[in-house]
Model the fold of this input.
Amino acid sequence: MMYYQSLMEFVRFALPKTACTDVACSQPRTLSDGLVETVVECTTGADSINEGMTAMKRNTLFCALAVAMGLVVTTPTLARSTSRQDQVEALTRLVEKQQQQLNQQQADLQALRDSLAKLENRPAQQTAPASPAVAPAPATPVFTSAPGVSVALHGFISATAFSQNKSFVFGNGTNAEFPVPGSKGSLSGFDVQNTRLWFDLKGAKFAGNWGGGGHIEMDFYGGYNGTGAYSQQQPIPRLRQAYMDLTNPESGSTVRIGQQWDLMFPIDNVTTSLTNIAFPLGLGTGMIGWRFPGAVWMQDLNHGADGAKWRLDLGAFEGNWSGPGDNVNYLTAGNAGFKPQLEARLHVQGRDWLAYAAGHYSKVDLTGVDGTAPTPIKSSITSEGVELGGSWHPGAWMFKGNVYTGRGLGQLFGGLVQFGDIKEMGGFVQAGYQFTPNWSTNVVYGFSKPNTHDVITWLGHGSVGRLENRQTALNLIYSAGAYELGVQWMYDTLDSTSDGINRISTSGNQLSLSGLYHF
Done:
């Protein structure tokens, strides 16, 4: 009892006159039988010391110190109840229990991360084992450019297998839009032309608050390398866009100069498809627009404000028409007399919706650049059009729509891609639903209805007799991380005339399987 009495004397005279309570001393009791006895001595032996020890029961710090000293000093009580080996085993069991609890917490944390990843539609992140902190190796530059300019390469690899029962306008496969009148015979193939690459450049400085960057984009619809037996397997790259941006973040202004989509193309509202990407569903059948060199001023109207974001775009683009003259050397009616295409667009976007209205105007001189070409019907055409569209994304649903009307819009894929003073109207609607974070489906319907009288009037002078087209498509898409897989069925019916009197209705089907890898 000598060690025990020494401990009590220390407790009585060296520390404040308080003692541990049963609650404070309850935790060490789980270590071993010996520890239980030691703690009980701490608690129950206090009554026999003096009244000052009673006050010590309110001090938990004292209890912890007393327990620690009890572990260090080998008392006869501890020696009677347990051995040193028992204490080691008891501590080992405690460590194992704490490790089990830690493992369970890590498992619960991983489950929460997996659930969050599924909700965000991305692959679950695996928890990496703990490792000593290591200084990261210096990054090796992939691209070099001007000082302060970052360069990023992005794109996707696309592959589509298809089968169809008619030949289609713009091409068979992934650029099919509506059937060639009177065509017969089925065909199938494998198409990779949708594969796309682009470079984004950011960080360039201009003057004052102005800076910016650029964008270069290409795909493989530039035709094929020759006409021989193996040419189809050698698609040629095609420039899509190449422009520079000058941006002022203080005023919310951007000037874009170079080849880009004109303002009638619904760049923020394109139909969803893994097969029809470069040639979207509805292009020329409810959706119009094309890429031209030009300049666009984009101005935020409520820059920095909360709520819906309003923007006004004003653009001027290179002219275009189908002759007369050389279509690949600027010698067309659209370029005569420096008459650019002038367009404007008002765009507003909220949290899960957007809407826009756009207008187009240009003047086309059918006498050509030199003014000597024979003019059919009239010497000039006024090209004009207006467009309304938008999308809404309530929960798992996605709705898109677009309508337009105008005349002389052949250079924008209007009039079923017929050139003349042809009035028309068209539009498309899409309804989509996302069943899970991975699975979604979409149905699309588009139509284009040129004025029949105008089509017949300009027959042989830019019109080829396309009177009306209706396109329906249904697809099912599976997305997982950087990969997308889809199946699509497209059905299209074209009404046409070859002489202005007869009427021909041609229907075509296409079934396709597509895969994409984004990077």
Remarks:
- Helices lie at 2-13, 33-44, 51-56, 60-72, 76-81, 84-119, 452-457.
- The CA atoms of residues 334 and 364 lie 5 Å apart.
- Confidence is low (pLDDT under 50) at residues 1-82, 122-135.
- Residues 84-119 form the longest helix (36 residues).
